[in-house]
Amino acid sequence: STGQSDARGALIVLEGLDRSGKTSQSARLLSHLNSLGYAVESWRFPDRDTAVGKMISSYLTNQSQLDDHTIHLLFSANRWEKRSLMEAKLKSGTSLIVDRYSYSGVAFSSAKGLDIEWCKAPEVGLLAPDLVMYLNIPPEKAAERGGYGGERYEQLEFQKSVAKYYEMLSDPSWKIIDACLPLEDVEKQMKEIVLDCVVSCQKGKPLTHLWL
Ligand code: 2DT
Asked: Ligand 1 within 6 A of 75 CB?
């Protein structure tokens, strides 16, 4: 800690298509920051452990059917139910590495045909990430990686559409990572970017809110 009262943890979000490597890289970033002595946790959305998360999980595994708007709002509710804990963690100095966030929410639902602005609306007021890293991979390449797991959205044509919506959502502050590179190269790039971000949040960079 710098001893400043406004020092805080960083909210770091990883986005990308299925099989882009988000989950492996989250784990690597977690242990890297840990080894440097930073307080850090790895989170993911959807958080399937809550009551809302169980409904989402059942939908994703095709055990239940829900209207597209309904599931969209459940994904959003799943972030809202974690919002106060997220804020408390960040304020207490713990950084969070989050595997998927509001951008997944908007990209996946928009890819189904829902209006983008409608999709963004329930996200307004959630904490804005300090850093968004997008693991960029052509959908065809991602599909070649050991195949998909069989959940609802894991289909090439749909992933192609999601990629277009991610592109529409991305802004110049996003760090676009070439996820086709070897894991170690991706990891090296991400570590440097993340460390910069953690340091700037320690110096008291203010927390902001979506939608940006
Ligand atoms: P995982 O495979 O990463 O568990 O994601 N999704 C995710 C949405 O449609 N909306 C959201 O808000 C979020 C966070 C992306 C499960 C799937 O759920 C999709 C893939």
From this structure: yes
List alpha helices for the chain, DSSP H.
22-35, 51-60, 68-91, 102-111, 116-120, 139-144, 156-169, 183-202
What ipTM describes this predicted complex? 0.99
Residue 76: both structure tokens together: 């959003």
Model-level pTM?
0.96
Tell which atom from ligand 1 comes closest to the C-alpha of 46. Answer: 14
Partnered with residue 193 across adjacent β-strands are none
In 3D, which of 135, 52, 74 has the Cα closest to residue 99? 135
Beta-carbon-side half-sphere exposure of residue 133 (alpha carbons within 13 Å): 29
Instruction: Identify the pLDDT of residue 5.
Output: 57
Hey, whose CA ends up nearest to atom 8 of ligand 1?
A: 105
| 126 φ, ψ (degrees, to nearest 5) | -70, 160
- At 49, list the tokens: 């452990």
Does the beta carbon of 78 sit less than 6 angstroms from any atom of ligand 1?
Answer: no
